[in-house]
Task: structure prediction
Amino acid sequence: MASTSSAENDVAARLRADVLGASLPPASPLRLMDLTGRYDAAPGKVREALLQLASEGLIRFKPKHGFTSLPLSIEELWDVTHLRIKLESEAVTQAIESGDEAWEARIISALHLISKVETRSLKDRRALDGDWSKKHREFHSALLSACPSQWTVRFCETLSDHAERYRRHSISVRAHARDIHAEHKAIAEAVIGRKAKLARELLSDHYTSTANAVAANGDAFETLAKKQRGRGR
Amino acid sequence: MASTSSAENDVAARLRADVLGASLPPASPLRLMDLTGRYDAAPGKVREALLQLASEGLIRFKPKHGFTSLPLSIEELWDVTHLRIKLESEAVTQAIESGDEAWEARIISALHLISKVETRSLKDRRALDGDWSKKHREFHSALLSACPSQWTVRFCETLSDHAERYRRHSISVRAHARDIHAEHKAIAEAVIGRKAKLARELLSDHYTSTANAVAANGDAFETLAKKQRGRGR
DNA sequence: CTCGATAGACTTTTCGAAAATTATTGCCAT
DNA sequence: ATGGCAATAATTTTCGAAAAGTCTATCGAG
Result:
């Protein structure tokens, strides 16, 4: 979360991208030796990366039984979504109160970069998901970057990761790209215009409709999870 | 947080107790080899424990420079306190809505155990801090144990750890023992009586007055922190 | 006397094989 | 057939020495 300095710990970063990016099936065991092969790293290094992800709640760890990816559940989806709305609304309100021009510039910059990726994705329509997700994350992070409460933004980032895991597991991000971009633009304008109440409402709608879209495909992963669970025991 | 299975990983538990219990000075480097001696464990094991604490934000980690304990700052104290009030109020409200008899029993049980420790501390007045803190933590945990939002509970526990770090660094917990016990009793009664609004107010007062007591001694650790910081660079 | 570079000491980090633990398979008795 | 038991296989965990990196102190030049 705060400790991965990008170039430093490559394995942890790639592993996280795979967990978040739905490259790994949910609720399945993550065998240490498979991963040493997959990432070409020493067992100890992989173990360290796995432990780090476990501490963020992205995977589960049972002391002598190894690691497993988490199942997806509709209840947790809504838990994450509701809490995220609550915390992020608060964070944005505080950011609006104490944000300066540099903060506004960061938001506009991030919004621009998202739209760049989106236009690019019209031509080259595969595998932009990772790129788009990164810019999307940075946009929401920019919104919160003027919030004086470090703990609030930290929790928001954690929830953001988990929300992304659900999003990437169920829907193709490009599916509703146009709508989403309009929403982002509206949010950015409300925030920079210092309209806290409007911003909160837009943010709430934004996350709620995303969660609804995920939940619509939710039956799929619910049954999948059950199947996996049944096999596991 | 969730991954330490008590007896399993001894070093991490002891290290955490020392960080929370103010046995280690704030804002000072945690040298790997010192700790291997202190806990009589292999370097790798200590490193693992250190990384775990770093992921919880209890210590800082710079990739090739090792670990340092965190400084104490009044701003962070209030950040933790305010967010904790917000989240824990919400969690208690939800717990009140959906708690059953077993939940009520857990609260009463935990309250009883606290008072036991407090009466015991009248005779044997030293080194009960660790024991009292443990029971105190369990009481607040019991309050939240019927909250259906796992994420809210998890964040509350993280904040609870950090609040304890501040408390233990500045004031002797027994100092206001009688007042605190009355507060706990009042909170328990409000919660079990399903008076959500009252419970929220009491909880808020409880944490605010603790934070005030810590902040009153705050000048001490602020100057200490400055001295350490000046020496460090 | 100040500044910069180089050598040395000290810390952290990595790696891979050995050890401990758990899961699986095949077998025998009931 | 079924249920328990033992041996085997697979996997995780540990350990310590070697390697890479960082900080400090000394020495020489300007």
Observations:
- Chain A has two domains: 10-70, 74-220.
- Strands of chain A lie at 29-30, 59-62, 66-69.
